[in-house]
Specification:
This protein has about 240 residues and is of the alpha/beta class. The chain has 8 helices and 12 strands. The structure holds calcium ion (CA).
Length: about 240
């Protein structure tokens, strides 16, 4: 690994033997590591050094781990934070999750598990960077458990539709497309967007695939599939899902 490519990990931990153990093991794995032994030092190093991951203890001198996490999240929603805490109780975990922690490990922890979690979190940072590079249109997705329109009822938990055509078991792609349509009710969606949502860009599919799905949706949900009122075509735009 080139020195310039080394990922930076800031360890905020006041127990010297734990901090040293972590530093040693992360260094062996090829990470650049700095240790802060109290809360103030931790926040200072976070600002000045711009680490790729923070390993954070809860019980710390000066400023406790939760307050550090809160401060960090006000300025940076994305830097991965792994809490290492002696306190393994659920309340602390929930508090940590509420403040935006990415992962949580109770002491004493298994070294191998710790290193695997670190590896995963560091990748997460890269993923955010990639995602920021080519900003794709943000797809809203319906996240309810069921939905009704006209004489149709869709159950997203059991993947079933009770509709004009009877009871139908929906495929995963049909579910994704339906959620996308519902979340964007009344707004036109391009074939490309529907294709990306249902199949991703990489697959060898064409926008014709989307048209075939719409034909199916109309058979399932429209009283008169040839005269659709819910899944409507918009020339040169794509499709609109709408209902009263
Ligand atoms: Ca501590």
């Amino acid at each position: 690994m080139e020195a310039a490519e080394k990922k930076r990990i800031l360890v905020i931990e006041d127990e010297i033997h734990i901090a040293d153990g972590i530093r040693l093991n992360l260094s062996i794995k090829g990470y650049q590591v700095k240790v802060a032994i109290d809360g103030i030092d931790g926040l200072e190093q976070w600002r000045s050094w711009e680490p790729d991951l923070i390993v954070l203890d809860i019980m710390l001198p000066m400023i406790d781990g939760f307050s550090i996490l809160k401060t960090i999240r006000q300025e940076d929603e994305k830097i991965p934070v792994l809490i290492l805490s002696a306190r393994g109780d659920t309340k602390d975990k929930i508090k940590g999750l509420r403040y935006g922690v990415d992962d949580y490990l109770s002491k004493p922890f298994d070294l191998e598990e710790f290193l695997l979690r670190v590896e995963r979190l560091v990748k997460k940072k890269d993923w955010y960077k990639e995602a920021g590079k080519d900003k794709k249109p943000v797809c809203e997705m319906f996240d309810g458990s069921h939905y009704d329109f006209g004489d149709n009822h869709i159950d997203f938990v059991s993947f079933k539709a009770f509709c004009v055509a009877g009871e139908i078991v929906l495929t995963e792609q049909e579910i994704v497309l339906l959620k996308l349509f519902i979340a964007n009710k009344g707004k036109p969606l391009s074939r490309e967007m529907l294709l990306a949502a249902g199949w991703g860009y990489s697959r060898d599919t064409s926008t014709r695939t989307v048209d075939n799905f719409i034909v199916r949706f109309r058979k399932y949900f429209e009283n008169e599939p040839k005269k659709p009122v819910y899944f409507i075509s918009r020339r040169s735009v794509g499709y609109i899902f709408d209902h009263d």
